[in-house]
Amino acid sequence: MGKMLLIAALASLAAGSAVAQDLKDEYRVSTVLPAPFPWGQAAEKWAELTAERSDGRINLKVYPGTQLVQGDQTREFTALRQGVIDMAVGSTINWSPQVTELNLFSLPFLMPDYAAMDAITQGEVGERIFDIVQQNGVVPLAWAENGFREVTNSKTEIRKPEDMQGLKLRVVGSPIYNDMFTAMGANPTQMSWADAQPALTTGAVDGQENPLTIYTTLNMQDLGQNNITLWGYVADPLIFAVNSQVWDSFSADDQELLRQAAVDAGAFGIEVARKGLTEDDQSLIDEIRSKGVNVVTLTDDEKQAFKDATASVYEDWKQKIGPDLVDAAEEAVANR
Ligand code: X2X
């Protein structure tokens, strides 16, 4: 081969490898909820922005219902780490069985409002949590939000822990939830979201706790969930994340494109998740009330009784999560 030909061949090889990374036809993005829930909307937005900004080169496809792990949302993180799933927009609750520190957001009454949540996720503590997620083998890119989890039930008005006595409440499959509701005197039963929906429909459980956007999207008043207590005891952020090997397969430019698309989709997702649920705009709550649902807002004193009832769970889990991280979060909240 002539020297010039060889150089030309090498040059085209180099150019080729710079341009044509081995992109998959499709990157599978796992979520629990589909659009039009805010969660699904956030994931769809990520896919949309990524497609747009990569001129269709990078194709994210959303698989809701954690169908890639047969609906077992507590296995999503493991599947993401192992590469069974390429990407996910996942709840901190569902990933907490593998990443203990993510239980931070489930500490009862740690975050009194959205500003508190932002102070954690958008600050130093949020960065520390992303480092921890990364150490667990998954690359986190941005935050979004499921929301503050309010308790609903078909039986009775809840204003104090005693009102929960004997209530059969579906809780997520993360142990801290069992601990909290047992401490409050309820009768919690852990099940996946896939199982929760039929259980609510048939009345196998009396109640559940989830953001109000889920309540309204599913018209839970038609499932007999006629009592809501607004107590804002915990909120679950969502994290956009990518399997490490999949992440490494992208060029630096495409990594930046994916990250920025996730950040923008996250901001959009947070806006949608909070719509009608802020101090200035209570329209979602008004809409629920207009359907004849009994919506109770706890006073500070009433909240205190639930805080007291769960104080030992908070302490216990603070030790498991890491007192140092929890202290930093408490400080971020105090200084918000
Ligand atoms: O299972 C739930 O309650 C849900 C949909 O909120 C989560 O995935 C954490």
From TrEMBL:
SUPFAM superfamilies: Periplasmic binding protein-like II (SSF53850). Belongs to the bacterial solute-binding protein 7 family. It comes from the Bacteria. InterPro entries: DctP_fam (IPR018389), TRAP_DctP (IPR004682), TRAP_DctP_sf (IPR038404). It is found in: Periplasm. This is TRAP dicarboxylate transporter, DctP subunit. Residues 1-20 form the signal peptide. GO terms for biological process: transmembrane transport. Its main location: periplasm. One of its GO terms (cellular component) is outer membrane-bounded periplasmic space. Keywords: Periplasm, Signal, Transport. Gene3D superfamilies: Bacterial extracellular solute-binding protein, family 7.
